[in-house]
């Protein structure tokens, strides 16, 4: 084995942006599974960490990247053997534990998920944290019982042209649900239509003209990846006994609302997170994704870059220039 491995790393808070560097093997953290990475995905959160725009990283030095897929190279766990195809999403990668934009990743077995047989490693990273989060949102609405009966009202998906939103639209459409997709990108109409959205509306159209505690009920439920004012407005427009699965806060962490949607209309607000999700639930979500995601559509909406190109590409996330998914090919 080589004495070092390549990784996108930030060495300190002042080291902006991160860079592709040779890291000594001795720097790898402890863990009972060593993964030889083949692919990673590039997410908005990774862009923030790499450029130092927001304090995503909790300790330095830190290898960036919240997702990784690869092959088990060494294992001290009975659950995995050398050669198994595996992935890790979240679990502190790129935040408080060396992340996935790296040739090698060492981590505890409890954080590792076996890649479903009908997904390639590249497919798994095209799905990544975004797809996992979307699947968890859909599953949360299913547990609530939102889809047990048919409804004339659509389900709203905010931030629909982003990673989580795109998969949420596709998964809901697969269920035969009427989906209204919200996007601030004027060129996203065809893209979201291909994913299965019935209607595509601009962000401004979501905000009702009325200023009361409740607005006209338009949606049976929603998946919100924005948070902030958007989430508050969506809650005002959910029909009685509807539900909202909230998983993002790009629009802010404050929620301006009242008790009226919850008490007068019996609306439920369900929080969804994908970073520390129990392993059994993650495995179910990945099996769901492997069965429900259209591979041809996944290929159409995914672009691939090399590890050496990551730092150059990440500013596009913050400039709103990224549509679909970016897979990083590592194992060349």
Description:
The longest helix has 24 residues, at 121-144. The chain has eleven helices and 16 strands. The chain has two domains: 4-115 and 301-329, Quinone Oxidoreductase, Chain A, domain 1 (Alpha-Beta Complex), CATH 3.90.180.10; 130-271, NAD(P)-binding Rossmann-like Domain (Rossmann fold), CATH 3.40.50. Strand 12 (219-224), helix 6 and strand 13 form a beta-alpha-beta unit. By secondary structure, it is of the alpha/beta class. It starts with a strand and ends with a strand. Helix 2 crosses helix 3 and helix 2 (121-144) packs across helix 8. Strands 3, 5, 6, 7, 8, 15 and 16 form a seven-stranded mixed β-sheet that branches. A six-stranded parallel β-sheet has the order 11-10-9-12-13-14, sandwiched between helices. A three-stranded antiparallel β-sheet has the order 2-1-4, with no helix packed on it. 46% of the residues are buried.
Number of E strands: 16
The helix/strand series, from N terminus to C terminus, equals EEEHEEEEEHEHEHEHEHEHEHHEHHE
Percent helix range: 25-40%
**Cα-atom radius of gyration:** 20 Å
Would you tell me the overall average pLDDT? 93
Largest sheet: 7 strands, mixed
Task: Please tell me what the overall shape is.
Answer: globular
**Into how many domains do the coordinates divide?**
2
